[in-house]
Design goal:
By secondary structure, the protein is an alpha+beta fold. The chain is 31% helix and 35% strand.
Length: 565
Amino acid sequence: MERRQPEIARIDLLSELEKSDFWKNVEIINRELAAYSSEELDDIPPRYHPDTLALRLSSRHFDPRYLDETTTATIACRLPNGESGTEQITGRLGLFTYTTITSEECTGGVNITADQRVAALQIGETAVPLSPETLLQLDIENPTPDEDPNDTFSYIMSQVREIGALRTKPSYQAASPSEQTTLEIKAVKDINQCLDAIANDNTVSIVTLHPELKYDDDTARGSIRAQNISVKIRDNYPHFLIIDTDSFVHAIPYGGVIDIEITDEPVDIDINVIDFFNDETIRNRIDYIESTTYCSEDDLAELIKDLEKTIGDNFCQDGIFSGAGMLYRKESSGDIEGELADFTLLSRGLDVLEIDGERKLVIALKDPNSPPDTSLYIIPDTTHLSQCIRKNAPRAMEIEPNCDLTECLRSAASAAEKLIKSDDFINADDIEQQQRMFDEEEAIDKAISKLVYTFDNLCQGYQIRCTAKKCWTIPVDVYESYSPEDIASLPTATLEPGKEMFEINGDVVEFFVPEMIDRKEKITSAADFPLSHGQPMLRITDASSGEPTYYLVPIDDFLSIAPVV
């Protein structure tokens, strides 16, 4: 059977652009370009370099789906007879760029010709200057997808395939690393916004998996009950990152998903702890436990076990309790002191304590940032709490990665610094130096593995909060235009008044030596590490704002890191 040719849809791209602040941003960038129009490109500061400004415009307004699609631009022009007219330019759509236009000004009766750089859109071999007066119409010829747009799963998959197809397009392959990163971030952000609207609405989604898909333990699974679905590029390939209703994270290649069904079943409803413990059956059991003055530890354990059967085994074991009221702390002396406090803490289980001369059933809590022997307690009633909500705990909080990870990172940083000062490293060629730093250095390999495991697997779906004494802040779209030496010369971020440390939020955490990335020259001395001083740094990416940002944190100035729950 002859394959049906796809129907072609004409998209009014200019109207789509004008729904945002497109012309306003074009005007701003044209002013910044004009400020350095007389400068040679090599003499322009990185932040105001035309390549950087064009990339900023692409990161905000270019839709990766349309890269290399056939585009027709209608532009205003001056006809040979001197009259105003229009012409059409057709070609494959590229990223926003810049071009130079020549204008004439009359100064003191003298006509002066001046060249000026302006923002432009690449269409085929032509850079079309951007202004509302010049660009009159912009049409995209886009094949209509075979999938029914009303079919949720088909629509999602068509969008994900667009991400995979992006990497095969000639314009993407010819683009700079900064441009490629910008396109990927924008493409993934767009599909995840779609998933947030369709699937991540506090209801359960049923994700059906391909029957031949195998997990690491060589087992198959038919489906996943999902509370959150997102897309992430892993190993240069789109993956679904699926958080199931038990807060486990699954990274599934997009070809391993064969259906997504959206249901009306609510996800993980927050439990009002005070109302929950006011249930008559539960309250009667608690009263009985509190009134049983004389019993052995074994008998008490059995009573608590019976109560846990009533309320559910995982109620305390897998719960995070957030609220306000009296928070009790057991001192090393055995004394119990209480204070009014707001809290968000992981549960240890149920216990019975004597507080203010009365036996009370308590929920034991733990703070991941406190010493392991620290004991905290709440009494789940209206007398002692004004509010208390229970949520399912993320696995990241259960494993308490902070202390272990911090020690691992600092050990790797120390090992790297020692390595680069060694004669063996200095005398090795450039390729061998790369291998020694990242492949053969056990401490660094361990730190990278720990970081990937913690934040790519366990903390997926949660923002990351890092605290540090110092960091550099650089927009993603200009990062590639800075060398490590350039960054080192920049001022570090400024602390807010009254703050002693930075609080950095992001969703991607990397461990790297900036001077070693894509380096072609051999390291000859410690002076070749002006930014990192030979110690790997943390790079945290915050893509949640309108301007995606990198935060660079020296390990010596790194304090803590944990998921935001």
